[in-house]
Amino acid sequence: TFAIEADSITKIYGSGNTEVVAMRDASMQVSKGEVVALLGPSGSGKSTFLTAVGLINSPTSGRITIGGKLGQDGDTAYVNLRSFRRQHLGFIFQKSNLIPFLTATENIQIAMQLNGMSARASKTRAMELLEYLGVGDRGGSFPSMLSGGQQQRVAVARALANRPSVILADEPTAALDGHRGRQVMELFAQVAHEQGAGVIVVTHDHRALDVFDTTYEMEDGKMQKQAPLEQTP
Ligand code: ADP
Ligand code: ADP
């Protein structure tokens, strides 16, 4: 089974005169352990695709399967969908979306505690993840006290905390310098290969493209798989 399977998904926003076809018949198959880059100009439908795969935004038509398990069922109870997402999906958005009144460590812990992990175990893992991402000394800080790049690293740690089988990232390195950006991309690849996770990263960052196994390009709502990239020296 694939980690992620999107089969001919179409998304139309609005209706009548205001209708916008954001995505037309987009398909993608991501194997376990595969890291996919999704490129394309602004407004081409990348976020629409990612939120559909993340079961946040349901497509107008088409089918999405995560780990061969969940179809795109309109009647899936919201609560179940939420717990499914929490267990299987890790999201990283352009903005870190950290909870402002929780510290960095607590922001990561809450993801694990919602899945039933103890406060103590979740704290240990949260601190390890922060250390691994180079912000081990900022665990007690509130988001407002962190730089954009530091907030982003906390958000990456939070997304990896539950060892998700699918990681979806939308411009995760936008707030990071070249070195940190590359490190985050390499971490995704490492997590994919070690945990067998499927990873999709929307990115404009051409410096780290060699980290990816596969590249897709979105243009005007159409998805196209690219030929393997040449390594640039
Ligand atoms: P990208 O992520 O590549 O910038 P998006 O998926 O955000 O592209 O947008 C694709 C198209 O869908 C754009 O034309 C955008 O204006 C439109 N769109 C996105 N979200 C909405 C929405 N909630 N309502 C109406 N149109 C939308
Ligand atoms: P270092 O590179 O400093 O030796 P490790 O690779 O031992 O660090 O990882 C330190 C912590 O980072 C781990 O305990 C774990 O919490 C997190 N980590 C590292 N690799 C992964 C991974 N593939 N998946 C999830 N978490 C990871």
From TrEMBL:
Record-linked InterPro entries: AAA+_ATPase, ABC_transporter-like_ATP-bd, ABC_transporter-like_CS, ABC_transpr_LolD-like, MacB-like_ATP-bd, P-loop_NTPase
Stretches assigned to the ABC transporter domain: 4-232
Keyword terms: ATP-binding, Nucleotide-binding, Transport
Pfam families per the UniProt record, alphabetical: ABC_tran (PF00005)
GO molecular function: ATP binding
CDD domains reported in the protein's UniProt record: ABC_MJ0796_LolCDE_FtsE (cd03255)
PANTHER family for this protein: ABC TRANSPORTER ABCH.1, IMPORT ATP-BINDING PROTEIN
Protein name stated in the entry: ABC transport system ATP-binding protein
Organism: Neorhodopirellula lusitana
Lineage: Bacteria, Pseudomonadati, Planctomycetota, Planctomycetia, Pirellulales
